[in-house]
Task: inverse folding
């Protein structure tokens, strides 16, 4: 609903939506912006015409069993290559000098990152947990769906 809207107007728009909702009006929002989805009380993720998940933002995030770490290291591009091959690592994204590492079903996410990098001589300057977002959960679901489809295609061949 806020595509192309400046940041101030966008905040005012969401304030109006929340006022209407607080007054008892049901509002249905469709968006590709996951930061907007996080502002909603309940979500339904639809991908390729199929319902992937429903629930509150926190329920959806919790069900994915994700951990996200912020990492600063001596060579972020090479570190990302190693991390993407590590067990449990779902995604590595760069935000300036910081890499955001998403892991799934991992009991020791920090240990996983250290075991992937330190034997190769990477200096870990900073490694700390950060909040798992609705976008992290959605991307994880879509990637899992893609992997399942690929396996089905292989099995059919």
Result:
């Amino acid at each position: 609903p806020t595509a192309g809207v400046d940041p101030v107007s966008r905040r005012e728009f969401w304030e109006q939506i929340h006022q209407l909702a607080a007054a008892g009006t049901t509002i249905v929002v469709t968006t590709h912006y996951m930061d907007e989805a996080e502002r909603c009380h309940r979500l339904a993720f639809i991908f390729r015409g199929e319902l992937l998940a429903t629930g509150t933002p926190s329920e959806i995030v919790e069900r994915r069993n994700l951990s996200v770490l912020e990492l600063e290291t001596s060579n972020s591009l090479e570190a990302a290559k190693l991390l993407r091959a590590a067990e449990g690592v779902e995604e590595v994204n760069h935000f300036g000098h910081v890499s955001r590492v998403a892991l799934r079903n991992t009991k020791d996410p920090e240990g996983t990152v250290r075991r992937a990098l330190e034997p190769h001589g990477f200096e870990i300057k900073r490694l700390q947990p950060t909040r798992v977002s609705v976008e992290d959960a959605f991307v994880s679901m879509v990637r899992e769906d893609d992997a399942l489809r690929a396996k089905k295609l292989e099995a059919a061949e």
Notes: Residues 134-156 form the longest helix (23 residues). The two ends are 42 Å apart (CA to CA). The longest strand covers residues 66-73. The beta strands are 43-47, 50-55, 66-73, 89-95, 98-104, 124-130.
